[in-house]
């Protein structure tokens, strides 16, 4: 079972949020709290795998709860997602608390479910020891640094001097970063250059086909496409065809 703690002082919104997650199935043990103190008691007496915390909890701040959660040794790396009416405090949340993401109210059911599914899929497939061994790369994003796991990168594109990194959870926009420097930074055998403006992760390729003279790539579980340049086509195809032998 995956243990999720939802901290929200508005009972109606809290119940609605819980019901959204329950639609994903019965693999979730959902705890709820209406203030910081009760949330800490629950966190210290249970092994919570994922926190959803309202940034404004009555007269308190959810970000203060985030700091206190990070002080608990078992929760140094546990996923925290903040819920907010506005993006205030989010830079501090990313920089100081290292939250995974945030959801803006009024939250959309499908976004809540998708984020929960993505995070809990990792928990189902990884235990604590191999989670710590997952390879990641750190990028500077304006005033904050972000950590992206290499195995979540689907493809990367360059658009007007901006590097757009497409991952399973979201897209990241990194300015003034070339594909050459990115490849050196990532150093992953399945993430390769496929075009002068694209890098792809061959593990996620579903189809390669030619359309209007261009080689296009579709990916498993992702609705945006990438491209392969003619001079990269043989190289990409060979690696893709032999990926089961290489991994």
**H/E series:** EHEHEEEHEHEHHEEEEEHEEEEEHH
CATH architectural category of the largest domain: 3-Layer(aba) Sandwich
Total domains, how many?
A: 2
How far the N terminus sits from the C terminus, by CA atoms, comes to 29 Å
Indicate the CATH class of the largest domain.
Alpha Beta
The major sheet is characterized as: 5 strands, parallel
Low-pLDDT segments:
127-132
- Beta-strand share of residues: 35-45%
Total of helices: 9
Looking at CATH, the homologous superfamily of the largest domain is: Response regulator
Q: Could you give the count of β-strands?
A: 17
Give short descriptive properties of this protein.
247 residues; alpha/beta; Rossmann fold; OB fold (Dihydrolipoamide Acetyltransferase, E2P); 2 domains; five-stranded parallel sheet; five-stranded antiparallel sheet; 9 helices; 17 strands
